[in-house]
Amino acid sequence: MSFDNCCNCSSFRIGNRGKQYVNLCATLLLEVNAADIALKLLRYCQNILTGYSFRSAETCYLLGNIYEDLAASKKDHSVNYVDKARQAYQESLVFRPSYRDAKYRLCYLEGDFPTVLSFSLTPKRKKEHAAEQCTLYLAYLAAHVNGDSSAIVDAAKNCILSTFRFVLPPRPDDFIWCLNTPYALLTATKRKRASCQLLAMDDRGVRYWHQNVTPQAWLDMALTGCTVAYQEKRYDDMVEIAFYAILTAELHEPAAKTVVMDDKSSSLVRVSDRQWQLSRVHLAIAVAAFHMRPAWEMNDSDDRPTWTDRKAFFYDYIRVLVNRHGAMDLAVDLWNPFYALIMDEAVVPNIAVGKWGHFFTKKKGFSMHVQMILANDALRRRGAAYHAYTLYRGIEQSMGKHTPWQVYLGLGILAVNVACRFGMSRKLRAKFYASSMAYLMKYEQLRRSCPEVLYNKARAAQEFGDAAVAVGYYRQCIRLTDLTVCTGDGLELAGVAQLMDYKFRAAFNLRQLLVEKARFVEARALMTTGGPLSWKSFTDGKTAHSRC
Prior knowledge:
Order of helices and strands: HHHHHHHHEEHHEEHHHHHHHHHHHHHH
Strand content: under 5%
Number of domains: 5
Mean pLDDT: 70
Distance between the termini: 79 Å
Shape: elongated
Strand order of the largest sheet: 1-2
Number of strands: 4
């Protein structure tokens, strides 16, 4: 019997119990593999019954399940049921944003299933392993939707280790040689083989639809697992996930370029950033090796690696990554530890920094980060302020309008240091001081007016000996700090503590200048009750914030 042969009634009203009955009938039809009849039932009820509509989370979720079954059966190839199912789940989340089942199914439809299967499987077992790996990946998606940190790490590790079950045992002890040899992990060690499609299956084992995917989902899962493992301080799991992700051959293949069409029908080539993401996985390995004490101290011998040896390994590993990137702009999470370690004399000798920077610039070309490292190294270790000033000037000339504020701050500080050198004429000394103030003004334009900028300008003027200008900037810094703390309702305690630190330093230097100028009344006012240098002003940031 067809629904078209039913009575042609104008309209009927239906209550909540009737809606539940219609949804139950559609669910039963879906269980007996009659998705097309269930879809006709819902459409018929929407057209005939006045009170029944698809404007509910449960009905939209049921409609998405029906579209998924129709996509699996592939009875009508002209209709894209997968997109319709995705749209139905999105509408379900609009009505109820916390609908976990709809969120899980939408994440399942939009996710890419990795195509990295174990190469040692026989053709008969490839289908079994595909279904097993699909189940593991679905468990990772479910843990990601639920927000369970421990489950995310376990699911990511199990899914990534499943492709290496016949190659290496999943034990951290096997990675000790690789940890001590950073160059061993620059290329994949897994054999190249053809990847297979995964069959997307639900809990009942019903095949839904095929999908050709890229290893990007595999890499995203590895990065997420490493991040969560680091937050949970599970460094053993972190190094396992990162090592097996690096050893996967498909991730080292050059990413294909995709052509994207915009609204004006012009092609735009977009290149994947998979290589940069692989550097993040390398960094995760280095961080895990740095924190994984059992791996370093597994032997009971007396020649255990010291803290300096661990930092030296960390520096060698990241230096390999920096050399591979060349002159391109690197991520901050790569440059911050590298910059901190290269300035450590116990880890890197003085001559090694200069040699590395010279050969890097000669081979890879100009790099702003390397130039700043060389300039800061020359100033910090050798006290060569003019040489550092020349290197910073080279950065300004090369970057032009795109010069960051850190460069202008360094130029302002170095110009004052050069101006205070012995054996310099008064005219040249005034010229360097004027250029220092000009650089600090550019620094203020990019950084905006804040206590940090005012304090740096005052400190530069005080170092040169311009007491009048320094006193004015110090007073502005104290006044702006009080105004920021009093009006900053959403200011965190860490920000308040930093502002109070600027205020204390500015008040301390201001008192010293006032005493030198014999202005004792003003200097004493800074230390009285309620003044910037009083004891109650620096109990903690919370007290100062509440007092304002």
